[in-house]
Amino acid sequence: MPESRHEHDKKSAKGTHLYRRIFLGRALRNEKLEGELLPKTIALPIFASDPLSSVAYGPQELLMILTLGGISFLTFAPAIAGMVALLLIVIVLSYRKVIQAYPSGGGDYEVAKKNLGRGASLVVASALLLDYVMTVAVSISSGTDNLISAFPQIADYRVEIAIGFLLLIFGINLRGIRESGVSFAIPTYVFIATVFVMIGSGLYKVFVLGESLVTTSSAYHVIAGAEFLDNPAQVAVVLLLLRAFASGCSALTGIEAIANGVPAFRAPKIRNANITMSVMGATAVLMFLGTTWLALTSGVKYLESGEQLSDPAQLAQFLANPQLSLMAQIGVAVFGGGSLLFYILQAATAAVLLLAANTAFNGFPLLSSVLSKDGFAPKMLQTRGDRLVYSNGMLSLATAAGALILVYQASVTGLIQLYIIGVFTSFTVGQIGMIRHWRRGMRENTIARKEAFSGLAINGFGALLTSSVLIIVTLTKFTHGAWLVFIIMPALWILMYETKKYYAEVEIEIQLKPEIVFGSKGDYAIVLMDKLTAPQLKALDYALSSKHDLLEVVHIAVDPETSAQFEKDWTAYGIQVPLRIIPSPFRDFGAPLSEYLTEYRAQHPEKRMAIYIPKYVVGHWWEHIFHNHRANRIRKQLMYVRGAMITLVPWRLESADKIDLFSRAPLPGDVRRGETLRGKSAMRRHEGGRNRVIKMVAKKDATPDDILDPNEND
Question: Quick check: 657 and 620 in contact, CB under 8 A?
Fold first, then answer.
């Protein structure tokens, strides 16, 4: 005996539910949100993987720029690294103050909004959004770079590998904050442990055993660029040092993510966020300085191009093989090229660089949801998915980062030029906002003077340093590709400003007005018919059952002969409903009908207008080719006619009876649109709720409380 339609639907829904469970996990109820909040041990790899992992490319970029001036310029590396470390400490201390003062999750955006106004807050928001996108693109490209250093044979597939990693991280994050945190915690802690083992081993070999560290590029004969050979004291030297400092500051990105993500911490939120910030800062400083020292001690020469090599044999070797990353070269010097620890270091470095993108996958959706609540971004960015994450924000981030990876072919050197301008813009504006926060607190006596003076000292020094770095970064990176940032950020600013303006206009338009009255004086309905067929008579029957005050059948006369035949058939059929034929000299259906309804509305403003349009429902995608979709086109045009209410009356063809709505793969938003169900229990809940509403509305004395079951959770 064949199974019933209902049984088939339930089986299909169960299959759909199974696929969702496999890829996304069990859907979580709203009250489970507290259980998704993070302990410090999980929050550290989630929010701090970006600044921790940046030790893999920050020192690398710093040394690469210095090497452009020749080997002698590497003597400036310790001083520059020390300045970067000092700046990192100051910024960490500054953000501890931000966490304490503004724990709502907006970070620098919240600080600027409360203290500097809308314009400054949008500057911060555009800078942070861009920086999060760059974090994903740079981290994944750098992780791919380190993977290629261990396995040079896959160098030709750089872009494909990077896009694959992007999709993997995006998919893991869709499963939820806590679950992605557990997935990312192990690689992050392995990376930290391996780097400290490497630093400790290097110190032991150099100072205890008295050994010399040698790596693959130690013997390179490097010459300075042409602009430094003739006059090494010219302005270009100063710019080179500033550019090296700016590149080293790429290690400071992502620090603000903890301040932006305070709401994701377990209680006490402020204390846990501050502890995590301190641990992250101390770890990042030690790793950055230790890695830079090892690179200088082992004689790493990381080159921008082969033109810097004077030895033809070395140049040929350089061109024949991909250049090992800085971390790989240090690993060779300390552990040995073929050792197990070398491969563990490379695997951990590649993993943590890839997972550093996770910082942005948590920060970007949180920030975009805050912007959405304030009206500066689309409302859909506030929507939480099945796993209680802002899935639309994650999708937007993945799309933008994927586009950058494709455009720049996953090149770290190319992408990093766009990287840190945005983050130092937000740093600077945020510090200035905090200065105003402390001064206002002192003036209004809402903050203790000791605390305010401490905040002014830290945030004032931070503002001085970050603004100086912002100027340096802008000057040194502008001509190397950073000019694009000065196009993207203003565009984002304008987009957010106009979004807010749009929502404000809509809010004014839809608000309740004193002149609004309820109760129309009669209604007018038409049934759009082209020829006498069963679907069109079904639409007419439906309109008749609604008992309108005035009902007409309307025929658009596109072809005079067809219209004459229809009028003849209508009269012969004998239906006692008036027929109105509207001429259409330009063979259009929607425009003449819209004009007629607009005129009718002007003459009878007190009446409602209902339009019934028959529509075929087909079962196969290829069947759409054989139908003109006129109903959809007319519906879209009539949506702009004021006072018109459109009803599509479906006629299911036999092929549609064989198609199960719930058998297809689920799409984002299906559950909210009611286009899919989750298993048998969900179907029972929906069916029970529908039957309960039908029964209750039939009661004359039914109330909303009767219809809504207080025991129903969905």
Answer: no
Tell me the two tokens of residue 313. 């044999």
At 384, give phi and psi (nearest 5°).
-90, 140
Does the global pTM surpass 0.85?
no
Handedness of CA 254, 260, 261, 266 (dihedral sign): positive
Characterize the bridge pairing of strands 550-557 and 644-652: unpaired
The fold adopted by the segment(s) 523-659 is Rossmann fold (3.40.50)
Instruction: Say if residue 20's pLDDT is above 90.
Output: no
Read out DSSP for 62-95?
A: HHHHHHTT-GGGGGGHHHHHHHHHHHHHHHHHHH
Asked if 455 contacts 438 with a C-beta cutoff of 8 angstroms, the reply is: yes
pLDDT score of 142? 78
Average pLDDT over residues 65-84: 87
CB atoms within 10 A of CB 431: 27
Q: Looking at this protein, which amino acid is placed at residue 474? A: T
Closest CA to 155 of 305, 322, 303: 322
Structure tokens at 670: 């299906």
**Are the C-beta atoms of 170 and 364 separated by less than 8 Å?**
no
The ranges assigned to domains in the chain are 41-503, 523-659
pLDDT digits (tens, 9 = 90+) for 339-368: 899 989 888 887 887 777 777 887 788 888
**Helix, strand, coil % over all residues of the chain, rounded to 5:** 70, 5, 25
Two tokens, residue 168: 């993997």
The structural architecture, per CATH, of the domain 41-503 is: Up-down Bundle (1.20)
Which residue, among 667, 131, 104, has the nearest Cα to 395 in the 3D structure?
A: 667
Cis peptide before 614 (omega within 30 of 0): no
